[in-house]
Structure formats: structure tokens, C-alpha cells
Amino acid sequence: MELLKTILEFELFSFEEYSLKIGALCLVLLIYLVTKVALWLLKKSLFRNKSVDEFSKGNTYSLFQIIKYIIWVLSFGFMLEALGIEVTLLIAGSAALLVGVGLGLQQTFNDVISGIILLSERSIRISDVLEIDGDTVKIQEIGLRTSKGLNTDDISIIIPNSLITTNKVINWSHQANLNRFRIDIRVSYNCDVEFVIKILEESAREHAEVSINKKVEARLLSFGESSLNFQVLFYSSTIFRSDRMKSDIRRVIRRKFVENNIAIPFPQMDVHVKTK
Question: Where in this chain does the record put each Mechanosensitive ion channel MscS domain (predicted)?
């Protein structure tokens, strides 16, 4: 015991009244390990039920992230105290420095505050499909400063949290299991309008991912300069890969148009040359 006490009291560094001992470093290491083990046990406890749905899993994840950050902040404070650094005096003494750092890292703090808002409000959850700046992204992780998502090209995207909280974001997964999609198409003025509407609705219904419980509807939207403009609307639970589904339906429409001699016009310009 005397040997152990001597080792722990061994002074590694000293400056004026401050001294760093092996015992302090051991205490810091112990606090770190206890924190890691406590968080691991907490995570295992919260996520032990693997049969929960994505909605509940997202709520649990948000709760765990908030608790994790609080525990690490407290743990870091205990580590500083173990090293003989009084946290209250440190904060008071560096107030001016913190103001300068705050101005320099304003955007970072904005992202951090946005992360806290996302985790506490739970308006965005894991596996939610968002449309941000015209890009469709499936959220994989919500962090304190940034969130990570996967776009439709399977590319991982790092998103600053402030971009989600301050911009207009469409959450395709927020409320309904079914979402309505639309496909626009232009047809020649020589077509039979009712027949075109029938083909558009049939083409959408043929796709396996289009809901049969919701109405498929085709509309004549407008009279264009060189075409009649139609739109077909349908419901589907496929959100993240909806571009592929739309492509399949367009291919069916194109095939049916060819079979029934329905023309898709292209923009034309007539030039009249006057001769004297």
C-alpha cells in the first residue's frame, strides 16, 4: 500500500503552486473509462428491443444523443477538477476569450444549437427521407454539429444542422406512409384527350409499387404552345427510390403511346422569310 501511495503521489510536473501527479492522471483515466462503460450500458439498455419500429427507434436515438452529450460535458468537468483545475474560475477568467472564440466560431455554434433543437424536437429522425436543396437524402445519423445522410446515388453527405433548421426542408417520412407523386407529359394537339388520360392512368396502375388503395388520376393541365400538357398523379410508399419508379412508369407510357400512335411533340419554330 505504501508503494502504491508513493507511486500515486509521484509528481510529474509542477509550475509555481500547481503540480500534476500520477494519481490525478489515473483519476482522469478512471473517469473516462467509467463514462465509456456507462454510455455503453445505457445504449445497450435503450436499444435492447430490436423489434421496435423506425419511429420509436428515432425517438430513442435522439434521447440517447442528448444524454450522451450531457454526460460527456459533466465528465469533462470532473476530469478538469481531478487535474486541479477549477472549472468555475476557468470560465470566469476566460470570459473575454470565450467571446472572441464565439464570434469566430459563430457558424459552428449555430450548427451545435441546431443539433440540440433537432435532437430535442425530434422533427427529424433516423431513416427519415428529406428533400434538401433539391437533393433527396435518407438520414443515417444526427450529430451535435452535423448530420449524415445517404442520397439516391449511395453517396454519404455531411449536412450542417443549421441547414436543416433554417431552410425549407421537405420530410417525406414525417406523417403519412403513402405520398403522392406526379409525372408530367406533353402530347400532340391531334390526340384524343380522353384516350390519353386512360393510358396514363393504366400505365401508373401497372407498376407494382403504386398503391391500389388510392386513386390514380390523370389531368389535362394546360394548353401549351405546341402541345397539350398532361399530368398523372398516384400514391406510393416508395420514397427514397421514387426516381426509379417514375422512370419505370414513363417507359410504360412511352411504349403505350408508340403502340397507339400518340405523338409526343418537340418545340418547333417557324421562320418566315419575306422577299421584296
Answer: 108-174
d(CA 43, CA 57): 12
CA dihedral 128, 133, 135, 137 (to 10 degrees): -20
Structure pTM?
0.55
| CB distance 224 to 267 below 8 Å | no
The residues with which 131 forms a beta bridge, in sequence order, are 136, 170
- Provide CB contacts within 8 A for 97, sequence distance 6+: none
Predicted confidence at residue 102, as pLDDT, reads 56
What is the spatial distance between Cα 175 and Cα 129, in angstroms, rounded to a whole number? 12
The domain of 255 spans 179-259
Supply the DSSP symbol for 137.
E
Alpha carbons 190 and 259: distance in angstroms, whole number: 16
Distance (Å, whole) CA 135 – CA 131: 5
Q: Looking at the 3D structure of the chain, how many domains does it have?
A: 3
Which residues in the chain show pLDDT less than 70?
1-5, 7-19, 49-62, 86-105, 174-176, 268-270, 276
In the block, residue with C-alpha cell 407529359: 185
Residues 196, 148 share a domain: no
Pick from 44, 61, 68: nearest CA to 142: 61
Q: Which of 163, 164, 136, 161 is nearest to 151 (CA)?
A: 136
CATH number, domain with residue 152? 2.30.30.60
98 falls within a domain: no
- CA nearest 25: which of 12, 14, 36? 12
Question: Rounded to the nearest 5°, which phi and psi values hold at 48?
Answer: -70, -25
Could you give the 3-state DSSP secondary structure of residue 96? helix
Residues 266, 224: Cα–Cα separation, whole Å = 11
